[in-house]
Structure formats: C-alpha cells, structure tokens
Amino acid sequence: MILSSMKDVVFGYGSEPVIDNLSLEIEAGQFIGITGPNGAAKTTLLKLLLGLLRPWSGTVTLNKEITEGGKLAIGYVPQQVASFNAGFPSKVIELVRSGCYPRLGWFGRFTKEQEELVERSLRQVDMWEYRNRRIGELSGGQKQRICIARALAQQPQVLVLDEPATGMDIGSRSGFYKLMRHYVSNHGRTVIMVTHGLEETRPYLDTVISLEREEQEGWKCLVTNSCSAHFGPGA
Ligand SMILES: Nc1ncnc2c1ncn2[C@@H]1O[C@H](COP(=O)(O)OP(=O)(O)OP(=O)(O)O)[C@@H](O)[C@H]1O
C-alpha cells in the first residue's frame, strides 16, 4: 500500500527551490530512513510527504485510509525536542499521558488500558523509573526518549522522527532502532526517520531515501529497496 506519493514536486522557501522536480513513492509498513548532509532538504521532504507543506508545483497524494482532515494520522517527534527549559513544570508521566488526549477528550479519565499503554511506552524507552521527575530536570537524551514515549502512546499508524537519536548514547541508540524495527515488523506500522547515522541505522531499515549533492548536477535523490524515485529535469 502506498502511503504517500509525490510527482514532479518543486518547493522552496525563498526564490530558489530546495526540492526541484522530485517524484517519489513511499510504502506503508516499512521502516524508512531519510539521509543526507545538513541543508539537503530532508526535513522539507518529510514535511512535503506528510502534507505539512504545499508544493509550488507538482502533486503530493496521501493515502486516504490514514488521513485525518487532509493530513496523515501521524505521531511526529520534531528535531530538537530536548529544548524544554529547566523550568518546564510537567512531570514525565503527565507529558506521556498527554499523547493519549486526542482519544480521551478534554475532561476524560484515563482508563486502565490507557495507563498500561503509558507505562508500556515509558518502559520501551527505559524511562519508567523517571516517571515522576520534572521534564526540566532531565538530560537532553532523556528528554528525547520521553518525547518518543509520548509519540508511542498515541499508537500512530505512522511514526515520524526527525533525527531522534541525537543526544542518545550508543547503547540507547541501538536499543531504540531495535524498538522501531519491532514496531514496524510486529505491529504493521510505518516509521519514517531522518537520520545522519546511516551506517548505524541501515541494518534496521527497509528503505533508504538519500539526498546527495553531485558535482555539477546539484542535488540527487537516491532510493534503495522497494521505493521508486526519479529526480531532476525530464524525470
Ligand atoms: N522556514 C524556512 N525558511 C527559509 N529557509 C528554510 C526554512 N526551512 C529550511 N530552509 C532552507 O531550506 C534548505 C533545506 O532545509 P532542511 O531543514 O529541509 O534541511 P535538512 O536536510 O533537514 O537539514 P539538517 O540536516 O541541517 O537538519 C536549507 O537551505 C534551509 O536553509
């Protein structure tokens, strides 16, 4: 099943495009990595694929089965979530519980099932013992894990992570990639992850979308595995 496809997409922020005539399809039920150097437009590509940005020209088509209000039903962990300041008042468990709010309603009470889901999500990122700590007291890598637990508690069909391993030590990173692999393989979900550490992540990924600059030819988009892509004029 195709999750999202783009055809002849051109997009930029100023007068010059940063994505120039890109056609790409991504499939559901995969662990997908988007990689490339700083400024290669990884985050921009991600936002276009998810319907969060509108292209200048070309089309982006989202699978209707997993959209809500014209956008994909996703859990999104943006870049630099670790910037909660030291005064951030919420406890860890409150932040992760808030991942369940959309289904709970504003004044709802948490069911046993939801509490179990919150506990499971915190245990999956090894942060259950920190549940009563204030967010502002945690280290950068710990805050990152809490934000991932919050996204897991939403049980999204599509989990989108923008450089999630930033600030995690090497042991935590490999544990995290295994967790994401399991989420895809055993629960049939899709994970899309922007990553700088391709050597580390490649063994876990089904598909790699790589944005690379080529001498004289500008940016190229290379896709390995089951996705298909065409890039550049005349594609
Ligand atoms: N809101 C914005 N306004 C203007 N220019 C932007 C904006 N967001 C990104 N850009 C520019 O678009 C280009 C691609 O940015 P993008 O954030 O998509 O790259 P990236 O590959 O995710 O980079 P990084 O690895 O550094 O996070 C860059 O040249 C950047 O300066």
Describe it.
The chain is of the alpha/beta class and 235 residues long. It folds into two domains: 1-73 and 156-235, 3-Layer(aba) Sandwich (Rossmann fold), CATH 3.40.50; 82-154, no CATH class. It is globular and about 55 Å long. 29% of the residues lie in helices and 28% in strands. The protein has seven helices and twelve strands. The longest helix has 18 residues, at 170-187. A hairpin with a 2-residue loop joins strand 5 (67-68) and strand 6. It binds adenosine-5'-triphosphate. Adenosine-5'-triphosphate binds at residues 13, 18, 36, 38-44.
Radius of gyration: 18 Å
The arrangement of helices and strands along the chain is EEEHEEEEHHHHEHEHEEE
Within CATH, the superfamily of the largest domain carries the name P-loop containing nucleotide triphosphate hydrolases
> What is the count of distinct domains?
2
Instruction: Tell me the number of strands.
Output: 12
What ligands can be seen in this structure?
A: adenosine-5'-triphosphate
Low-confidence stretches: 226-235
CATH architecture of the largest domain: 3-Layer(aba) Sandwich
SS element count, helices: 7
Highest CATH level, the class of the largest domain? Alpha Beta
- The span between the termini is 23 Å
Question: Any chance you could write out the topology, listing elements then pairs?
Answer:
Elements: E1 2-11, E2 19-27, E3 31-35, H1 42-49, E4 57-62, E5 67-68, E6 71-72, E7 74-77, H2 92-97, H3 101-104, H4 112-124, H5 140-153, E8 158-162, H6 170-187, E9 190-194, H7 198-201, E10 207-214, E11 218-224, E12 229-231
Helix pairs in contact: 4-5
Bound molecules: adenosine-5'-triphosphate (ATP).
Domain ABC transporter: 4-235
Protein name: Metal ABC transporter ATP-binding protein
Pfam family, one: ABC_tran
